[in-house]
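Troubleshooting: if your tokenizer reports a length mismatch, compare your output against this known-good record of 67 residues.
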Amino acid sequence: MVVKIRLARFGRRNSPFYNIVVAHARTARNSRPLEVLGTYDPVPKPDPYDASGRLHKDIKLDTQRAR
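Known-good structure output:
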């Protein structure tokens, strides 16, 4: 049983949102994963805590599940 860490795409057209998942290597991209490790939002958004006003991409990873 070979597994891979990859991105499963969700969201709408031109507004993607990804789950970072562990899935079997031979399954489809959005098929049922073994484990969901985190999320990735590639659309840049302004960070309210950053004074420079730059846009940031959001990555959230559950470190307890990734071990």
